[in-house]
């Protein structure tokens, strides 16, 4: 019974942690998307100003559908901002736009963790798509090597999640520095901007934590099957 209770707590944690992080970022975004920034610049204008100030004239800015679908595409050298952030002149829009430009600056400066994350993408995709299948097949069929290959793939996917953390935190730090140095936000707006960036960072922390917990669970299952 204790074992069943432990599994229930474990699976509850796997569901609650991401939901909690998503709730935090959505609440922060909802609140500060209603607060205008003092510079009255839209997210697109914020992104363009910071890019130009850093000599990244070749990086384009595009509008993309969806909410919080903002991202930087290193292959196309494009900062893509969701509709509300592209056109909005809110605290949330300026924070998120600056964060995505932070990734563009990382790319231009060959930021080591960003390069490492890009290198991990192929094997991380394999891990996400096939790790569970290989592990379960290996454990059920008692094929130790097959299960071990699955765990290695899952480990690569977890490593990708962990490497993502310094990439995202660094982009947020760059965003704050750029927003302040360019005068896009005032000193009195720094606290609110950090709240938006910190809430967004929680989603990556939650994803990494869940990934590590899953890896540990399967490693323990693998070790337990070998003991049997």
UniProtKB/TrEMBL annotation:
Annotated TM spans: 6-23, 119-140, 146-167, 196-223
Keyword DNA-binding recorded: no
Keywords: Membrane, Transmembrane, Transmembrane helix
Any single Pfam family the record assigns to this protein: Zn_peptidase_2
PANTHER family linked to this entry: MEMBRANE PROTEASE YUGP-RELATED
Protein's name in the database: Zinc metallopeptidase
Source organism (scientific name): Aciduricibacillus chroicocephali
